[in-house]
Amino acid sequence: MITMQAVGVVYPDGTRALRGVDLHVERGEFAFIVGASGSGKSTLAQLVYRELVATEGRVIVAGQDVAQLPARRVPFLRRKVGVIFQDFRLLPDRTVFENVGFALDVVGAPRAEKFRKVPISLELVGLGDRGDSFPHQLSGGEQQRVCIARALVNSPPILVADEPTGNLDPDTSWDIVQLLAQIADSGTTVIMATHDKHIVDQLRRRVVHLVQGTIVRDAKQGGSYDGT
Amino acid sequence: MAPRAVEMVLAQAWTGLRRHSLVTLGAVCNIAVSLTIVGGFFLLAANLEHMASGLAREAVITIELAEGVKHDELERQLYADTRVKDTRYVSKEEALKEYAKAVNLPYKDLAGAINNPLPDVIRVTVTNPEDLAAVANWAGRLEGVAKVRYRRDVAEKLLRVATGVRTMGLLLGGLMAVAALLLVSTTIQMGVHSRRREIRIMQLVGATNSFVRAPFLVEGATEGLLGGLLAMVMVVGGYSYLQARIEASLTFVDLLRGLDFLALVGAGIAVMGVGLGLAGSLIGTRRYLRLV
């Protein structure tokens, strides 16, 4: 589903973020990308939803060579990649229902589709009854669930999570990660960048460890944060 | 675009127009003023040209007589020329009467108020307007002739004035139009700024560039249309009013008129307004919207 071959990223200011990254993630796989701050986790995540374009090597997402993608096709790639963030990025003046529906609105989906899909998506993240609430009325964990519901409402084959638990307490973090693991088990490819050792060690899934922009370890199954 | 997408775009544009309503109003007024200037100068120039062409068609030469010259002899000489169709002597008193009628004042008041400055003249009608200049030249050399005027002369002067007016209108209007463009693009910039979170999310969930951009274009076009309509009311209304006033008091002035003509001018102004608004928002979105 996601393939990177000898990928390197050098920012315009000359900073090198990634070097010689080879990575392949299968359909329905769940992979942690771990490493210290500045190790290139976010950069790698951004390559997948083409917020960034690799300066070296090839990135293939859902069968598409991202570098070959003309700019006007980028939005259509993004519809195949749901993204969630540490800071949730919800619209404060809209209800939970409208926040999730927003992802359908902006791709021009008919209203009927919105009223059919949004409740399903909210149900999936356990917020079936909070559609009329506003983001500020929700806890951090609930807000992140709304964000996940929005990322999933278009049924993308890939979900990219960039430090999704960075603002959450440990128990809530664990709930969110379990939810993401469930989503992966139902066939969605999930990539999660994190430096939360605790949840990585608890979940025991694939772990890709980055140090200064290079993959130093790729534990396929039952991985832990530091390889112990 | 799907109907749902059109609905989304229009809703966003409407919110955008209301969000910065004062700046929007400023942009609308700016467009209105610039188009009023352009429209006003255009009408002025068009009328001058219209009058000029009317004058140029009249093949009449006015010959002013020197003080105390008898007109009969001169008239005979002029009439003898084959190119001359007709001659008519107009005394200074008659000329003043004509003028009084044209400006709608009682002759008695006028004659009493001023020492008649008009000369005695002979009006010479030429068979072929082509010969105007030649006949005028020849007549100017005859004895007892003080001065020769013919209307092509005046027409050419009017045309030069019209060109000047037109250039001035384009210059002034153009300057205002540039200001209008910048103001529209500023309202767009403010819209982009206050919606940057929303736009960011739109781009992340796969909104196309045209979908992100469309509300701003609709916003700009609406500002342009409103400004254009305002200018249209001012120009067409103002012109109709002035036309009525001028034709009531200065009967010799022949102005462009007609519903067709005014409708065309009005439609032109409205279209230019929409164009200005669209151009402004194109500039604004190009400069401030970070598209993927």
Give the integer mean of the pLDDT values of chain B. Answer: 84
- Stretches of chain A where pLDDT is under 50 for at least 5 consecutive residues are none
Total strand count of chain A, please?
A: 10
Percent of residues in beta strands of chain A: 25-35%
What number of domains of chain B? 2
In spatial order, strands of the major sheet of chain A run: 6-7-8-3-9-10
What shape does the CA trace of chain B take? elongated
Return the structural class of chain A.
alpha/beta
Report the end-to-end length of chain B measured between terminal Cα atoms. Answer: 19 Å
CATH class call of chain A: Alpha Beta
Order of helices and strands of chain A: EEEHEEHEHHHEHEHEE
What percent of residues of chain B adopt helix (DSSP H or I)? over 70%
Label this structure with key terms.
heterodimer, A: about 230 residues, alpha/beta, Rossmann fold, six-stranded mixed β-sheet, four-stranded antiparallel β-sheet, about 25% strand, globular, B: about 290 residues, alpha+beta, Alpha-Beta Plaits, 2 domains, 10 helices, about 75% helix, about 10% strand, elongated
Walk me through what this model shows:
The complex is a heterodimer of chains A (228) and B (292). Chain A has one domain: P-loop containing nucleotide triphosphate hydrolases (Rossmann fold, 3-Layer(aba) Sandwich). Chain A is 32% helix and 26% strand. Chain A is built from seven helices and ten strands. In chain A, the strands form two sheets. A six-stranded mixed β-sheet of chain A has the order 6-7-8-3-9-10, sandwiched between helices. Chain A has a four-stranded antiparallel β-sheet with strand order 2-1-4-5, covered by helices on one side. The longest helix of chain A is centred in the last third of the chain and has 16 residues, at 170-185. Chain A is globular, with a radius of gyration of 17 Å. The two termini of chain A are 28 Å apart. Chain B folds into two domains: 3-51 and 161-288, no CATH class; 56-155, Alpha-Beta Plaits. Chain B contains ten helices and four strands; from the N terminus they run H-H-E-H-E-H-H-E-H-E-H-H-H-H. Chain B has helices spanning 3-19, 21-57, 71-80, 92-102, 107-113, 132-140, 151-194, 196-204, 209-249, 259-288, and strands spanning 60-65, 84-90, 121-126, 145-150. In chain B, helix 1 (3-19) crosses helix 9 (209-249) and helix 2 (21-57) packs antiparallel against helix 7 (151-194). The model of chain B has no long low-confidence stretch (mean pLDDT 84). The chains are: A alpha/beta (228), B alpha+beta (292).
